[in-house]
Amino acid sequence: MNSIQEHCCGADQLFDLKTAQKQYRKYIKKGPGRVTQKIIDQLSNFSIHQEDVLIDVGGGIGALQWWFLSQNGKNTVGVDASSGYQKIANKHALDLNLSDRSTQLFGDFACLDLSALKGNYVTLDKVICCYPDFKSVLQKAVNTQPEVISLSYPLHGYLASIIRGFGVLFMKILGTSFKPYVHNGKHVQLLLIDLGYQLKYQDILFPWRIQTFVKM
Predict the structure, then answer these.
(1) Which domains are delineated in the chain?
(2) Does 160 have pLDDT greater than 60?
(3) Sheet strands (E) in 33-162
(4) How far apart are alpha carbons 61 and 146 in whole angstroms?
(5) How many C-beta atoms surround the C-beta of residue 18 within 10 A?
(6) Residues whose CB is less than 8 angstroms from the CB of residue 34 and which lie 6 or more positions away in sequence, other chains included
(7) What is the pLDDT of residues 170-214, one digit of tens each?
(8) Model pTM?
(9) CA-CA distance, 86 to 106, in Å (whole number)?
(10) pLDDT recorded at residue 181
(11) Cα separation of 63 and 68, whole Å?
(12) How many CA atoms lie within 13 A of 23 on its CB side?
């Protein structure tokens, strides 16, 4: 399937242009969603400098990117497996004259060759729950040498497993190859510690866990 894994092809099908347009209208009317806003709240504790770069994995319509640029960040790179979301993000950047500071990369973050990409901040808002192997995704994020990593993902546990089961069934009914995944929060945190990061901020907004890690 070219460079895009099956579940990410499913993501392009599930998160299509119509879905992106609906989310964008909501963003224009009400601002970032609650979970995304929590990430913004956590990142607001840091001083963003004019030379800083944000890599926004699974960036969607770009809400985190537009916030980062409004804080005088140098530029942003959005990586997403949804062509519909990227179309909306590119149009927003063009409308606000931000195209020279905003780059959109289409494809599976875990598969793209991003060896030359470096960033001061990396965000993964509702991203690792799209992958069966969260370790490779976080390793790829760390390879960009960020000082700060922020992410959100579902709380794990018995209830989460039941919800995931219904989610998988629903995706089968829709005929998409996309599948949601639930990962143990302790395993996520231990991996990032092993990779040289420590937990700085954490919020729980059921059913999501929102965390920000800083380089040790």
Answers:
(1) 6-215 (3.40.50.150)
(2) no
(3) 53-57, 75-80, 102-106, 121-125, 148-154
(4) 22
(5) 9
(6) 205
(7) 455 555 656 678 889 999 999 999 999 999 999 999 889 999 999
(8) 0.88
(9) 7
(10) 83
(11) 9
(12) 22
